[in-house]
Specification:
This protein is an alpha+beta fold. It is built from 2 helices and 2 strands, in the order αββα. It has one domain (about 10-85). α1 packs antiparallel against α2 (about 60-85).
């Protein structure tokens, strides 16, 4: 992998670049898997809530669950950054 001329190998900036690329690759792979999973599961299901139930496509259940997972992930990261900043 080629490095930018102003960022020598081994610096924290170079390590950060590698982590960002790895994060993007893993995120893209996860998105591809999610799309494949959604396309393969298009039948209707009954979803039970605390106060009732509904019948909906499994696609929506998977997408809502994935969205909630991303939101919880971002919230945990934001809380961690905030705690580090307060120290």
């Amino acid at each position: 992998m080629a490095q930018a001329p102003d960022r020598p190998e081994g610096t924290s900036a170079a390590k950060r670049d590698v982590r960002e690329i790895a994060r993007l690759v893993i995120g893209a792979a996860g998105l591809v898997l999610l799309i494949a999973f959604v396309v393969g599961n298009s039948n209707d299901v009954r979803v039970n809530y605390i106060f009732g139930h509904a019948t909906t496509s499994l696609i929506w259940v998977i997408l809502v669950a994935a969205l909630l997972g991303v939101l919880v992930d971002r919230l945990i990261i934001a809380i961690g950054k905030r705690r580090k900043k307060q120290r």
